[in-house]
Design a protein that fits this description.
With 237 residues, the protein is mainly β. The protein has a single domain, classed as Beta Barrel (Porin), CATH 2.40.160.
Length: 237
């Protein structure tokens, strides 16, 4: 008998295959597509573990994520994104984000992305909140800042500062390194560092990745911040 965990991955793989076929067909008919239709975009991914800032959001179980949106211009987007989640002792199973983003282009190699997310969790609402991202791109370097007004459902704010760099290995592969620092303001938790190293393979419209994550103070997360390996298959359409 197939376990629920593998049933989840099999169903997700079927959905991913569907999205991939749709995406390839859209690319093949790109010249025939109306400009207004090209403004719509979407994404879908399967992960063996959904890890955010070094902390698992699915209790180390798999995740299926998808999102759709509309591009009003090359800079301005509105979208909705969703993922299953799993937190021990909490009746929360779904995270939906409604967001807008705007990208400021200063030069060909320098731009600033502003994104604001409205987070909603179901069924329990204790993790609901908002977060704001600033992503400054300087050539191939990224300087990131995230302000979260309800960090990990504690009803307190946090600030995350990070540095990210992608190192191309070949035309289709790269290694991405991220180092972040979270400043939290809640009893029983300390500020911590999170590190991530990812190997990425891209073959349009598919992206495969394997990442290793860890935090500097894993004990405070009761196993959720331990070193972990996560695999991902993603596509855009």
């Amino acid at each position: 008998m197939v376990s629920p965990r593998y049933k989840f991955l099999i169903i997700g793989a079927i959905i991913m295959t569907f999205f991939s076929c749709v995406s390839r067909r859209c690319h093949a008919q790109e010249k025939k597509t109306e400009k207004s239709s090209e403004r719509f975009f979407g994404e879908a991914s399967i992960l063996t573990d959904y890890i955010r800032k070094g902390v698992t959001q699915t209790n180390h179980d798999p995740a299926f994520q998808t999102g759709v949106g509309y591009k009003f211009s090359p800079s301005f987007r509105l979208g909705i994104w969703g993922s299953n989640v799993n937190y021990e002792y909490e009746s929360v199973h779904l995270n939906l984000k409604t967001y807008f983003s705007y990208q400021f282009f200063m030069t060909a190699n320098v731009n600033l992305l502003l994104r604001h997310d409205l987070d909603r969790y179901y069924k329990a609402t204790s993790r609901n909140g908002t977060n704001t991202l600033l992503d400054l791109t300087l050539f191939s370097y990224h300087v990131l800042y995230v302000k979260d007004d309800n960090w990990e459902g504690t009803q307190t704010q946090s600030s995350w500062f990070a540095f990210r760099k992608e190192f191309p290995y070949s035309a289709s592969t790269a290694i991405e390194a991220t180092a972040g620092y979270s400043m939290v303001d809640v009893d029983n938790y300390n500020n911590y560092i999170d590190l991530k190293a990812a190997y990425i393979y891209r073959e349009n419209p598919i992206k495969l990745s394997a990442e290793i994550t860890m935090t500097s103070n894993a004990r405070q997360f009761n196993g959720r911040g331990n070193m972990a390996l996560a695999l991902q298959v993603a596509t855009q359409f």
